[in-house]
Amino acid sequence: MTDDYGGLIGAFPYAFRASDSLLFRSYIVVGTVATAAVSLLFVTALVGVIAATSGGRGGSLTLSRSFFAVVGLFVVVPLVAPVLLVARRHRRVGGHATRYDAALAATGYLFLLSLYVGLVISVPPAQQTTPTGVLAPAVAVLYALPQLAGVAPPLLAATVELGCHRLLR
User: Fold this and answer.
1) Band (1; pLDDT cuts 50, 70, 90)
2) CA–CA distance, 32 with 79 (Å, rounded to integer)
3) How many CB atoms lie within 10 A of CB 21?
4) Terminal CA-to-CA distance of the chain, rounded, Å?
């Protein structure tokens, strides 16, 4: 198969060529940029965590480094999953699956939005600013939630992403 892809990196251009959905094609561009930015953010933060804990011995310090890397994977995997799933479907099944492609793109965008909402919820009180504008009431409600609730929106969005894949495949 000359049109086949060769792994993670090759799945992105393959899915872009194979899909007829404009929404999905836009997600490939936005998702790629978001994935690169989030990956860079986690790698630099991990370097900072390692530098800050380099003087200590193993134990909980090593565990915190590993936990940081696992959290990074839990954020990056749902960002690339729509692209990988669509590329896999087009490679195996072929044909036009515009509805499937568009639905997975929508769940990818939903996950991006949920990351932002989760970040707003988890802003420390000392760094919160007074919300203004049209979204001020929504931001005030998000600020009022406990910081740990910031995990819920991305978890829910990733579950919706998986459910959409299972339902429409």
Assistant:
1) very low
2) 8
3) 21
4) 23
Query: Which of 124, 135, 122, 100 minimizes the C-alpha distance to 21?
Result: 100
Quick one: DSSP state of residue 145? S
| Cα 152 from Cα 158, distance rounded (Å) | 10
What type of residue sits at position 13?
A: P
**Mean of all residue pLDDT scores within the chain:** 87
* Per-residue pLDDT, 98: 82
Q: Are 168 and 162 in contact (CB under 8 A)?
A: no
pTM > 0.90: no
- The token duo for 116 is 């932002």
Q: Which carries the bigger pLDDT value, residue 159 or residue 63?
A: 159
Q: Are 105 and 24 in contact (CB under 8 A)?
A: yes
| 3-class SS of residue 61 | helix
Contact 57, 90 (CB under 8 A): no
Give the tokens for residue 26: 């836009």
Which letter does DSSP use for residue 69 in this model? H
Alpha-carbon gap, residue 158 to 169, rounded angstroms = 16
**Residues 9, 24: Cα–Cα separation, whole Å:** 17
What pLDDT sits at residue 57? 65
For the chain, what are the domain ranges? 8-168
